[in-house]
Automatic annotation (TrEMBL):
Domain named PilZ: residues: 35-112
Name of one Pfam family that matches: PilZ
SUPFAM superfamilies attached to this UniProt entry: PilZ domain-like (SSF141371)
Residue ranges that the Swiss-Prot or TrEMBL entry lists as coiled coil: none
Organism annotation: Peribacillus loiseleuriae
Domain of life: Bacteria
Lineage summary: Bacteria, Bacillati, Bacillota, Bacilli, Bacillales
Listed InterPro entries: PilZ_domain
Single Gene Ontology MF annotation: cyclic-di-GMP binding
Protein name: PilZ domain-containing protein
Length: 125
C-alpha cells in the first residue's frame, strides 16, 4: 500500500464544536448571506464535516463557497471552502467542505488542534 503524503489527518471532536457559516460564492459570483448555525463534526487542514439544520439548495448543481467561523481554544478561526457533498439525516444535514487554506492557515489549524487534543487528554474537555 502506498503512503499518500498529501492525505490530511482528520480530527473528530468528541463533542462537536459550535460554528457559523456564510455563503460567500455561488458559481464563482461573490455573494454574502447572513450567518447560519452549524457544528463541526470533524476537521483537517484539507476539509471539514459540518452539520446544520439549514438546507443549502442546489449543492449538486452549483459550486457553493462558504466561510466558516469557529472558536478553538478561545481563538477565533475563519476558513473558506466549498461544499463537495451533502447528506440529509432527518432534521439535520451534513456537509463535506473542501478547505482553501494557505500553508500558514494549515499550520495554525494543526497547532490549535494539537492544543485542543492535549487539553482533552489532560482534562477530559
Amino acid at each position: 500500500m502506498r503512503y499518500n503524503r498529501e492525505a490530511h489527518f482528520r480530527y473528530t471532536f468528541e463533542n462537536p464544536i459550535q460554528a457559523y457559516f456564510q455563503i460567500i460564492k455561488i458559481d464563482g459570483e461573490s455573494v454574502k448571506t447572513s450567518e447560519g448555525d452549524a457544528r463541526i463534526i470533524n476537521i483537517s487542514p484539507g476539509g471539514a464535516k459540518i452539520q446544520s439544520k439549514l438546507n443549502i439548495p442546489e449543492t449538486d448543481h452549483k459550486s457553493i463557497g462558504l466561510s466558516i467561523r469557529f472558536k478553538l481554544n478561545e481563538k477565533e478561526l475563519t476558513y473558506n471552502g466549498f461544499i463537495i457533498w451533502k447528506k440529509v439525516w432527518g432534521a439535520t444535514i451534513d456537509y463535506g467542505i473542501k478547505m482553501e487554506e494557505d500553508d500558514d492557515d494549515k499550520k495554525e489549524l494543526i497547532d490549535q488542534l494539537k492544543i485542543h487534543s492535549k487539553n482533552v487528554i489532560e482534562h477530559g474537555h
